[in-house]
Specification:
The chain contains 8 helices and 12 strands. With 258 residues, the protein is α/β, with parallel strands linked by helices. Helix 6 crosses helix 7.
């Protein structure tokens, strides 16, 4: 996580009902993100805060290293790499995870939530304020649920955690309809402007980055560097976020439950 003070507490409380343990890697946040995590630790929630001072965006490497470590120290049944703007949803998510196949990696589909003119500006919790999601995901992105058999040194979590890589061949992966991820990438004009500018600069500084990665930040970089988007443009950015080509898309009222 990096500068996610507006959602990190909600993220932790939401997933504390599901996970036995959460390891939060804070990548050089200069806002209150780490302070919030530490405060929640004092409440006895099952969280551990780690600090990563790197000025380069190395998400895949950091998560892969952590997975290999946890495989040796904790031997967990499941590892689920998430971003702070992603919320597991589904009927009894904890039980559902336990029922997933153990001989393949399960893929949870994104459901991207977007701000609308109907949002209550007085609601500070973005996941309660933003109650509409896109009717179409184009393309459909997924995030992974990794069972024990795939935690070893031969497996690598790539940037974005949209799949799992294996040095010896292909990893069996299959979508699941039992779990989804409510995704809140665009929450305010100030937040998306900072996210695009800082994330693209840090990603571009990575000498190992691959062509095409995080193209959506690059497309918006110059526009965001010029100033805050208007309300209309802000909602348009949210509606088309991470879409290579604009497609007609409506919104569906579908608030998530905590």
């Amino acid at each position: 996580v990096r500068k996610e003070a507006d959602v990190i507490a909600t993220f932790i409380r939401h997933h504390a009902r599901i996970a036995d343990r959460m390891v939060i890697i804070d990548n050089a946040s200069t806002d209150a993100t780490a302070d919030i995590v530490e405060a929640l630790q004092t409440e006895g929630l099952p969280i551990e805060l780690r600090r990563d001072p790197s000025a380069i965006h190395r998400q895949g490497e950091a998560l892969t290293t952590l997975m290999h470590e946890l495989n040796l120290t904790d031997d967990p049944d499941w590892i689920i790499p998430l971003d702070a703007d992603e919320f597991l949803t589904g009927n009894d998510a904890r039980r559902t995870i336990g029922d997933l196949p153990t001989d393949s990696v399960s893929l949870m589909p994104w459901r991207t939530y977007v701000p609308t003119a109907e949002d209550n500006p007085l609601e500070r919790d973005a996941t309660r304020r933003i109650t509409h999601r896109r009717s179409v995901e184009s393309p459909q992105y997924y995030k992974i649920v990794i069972p024990r058999a795939f935690h070893g040194k031969r497996y690598t979590i790539p940037l974005g955690s949209h799949g799992l890589e294996f040095t010896g061949g292909n990893v069996p992966m299959q979508p699941t309809g039992m779990l989804t991820l409510a995704h809140f990438p665009v929450r305010s004009p100030e937040q998306i402007r900072r996210k695009v500018i800082e994330s693209w600069e840090r990603h571009s500084a990575n000498p190992n980055r691959k062509a095409g990665q995080n193209y959506h930040w690059g497309k918006l970089y110059e526009e965001m560097a010029a100033g805050l988007p208007s309300d209309t443009r802000f909602r348009q950015i949210a509606l088309q976020y991470a879409m290579p080509k604009p497609v007609p898309v409506d919104t569906v009222y579908d608030p998530i439950m905590h």
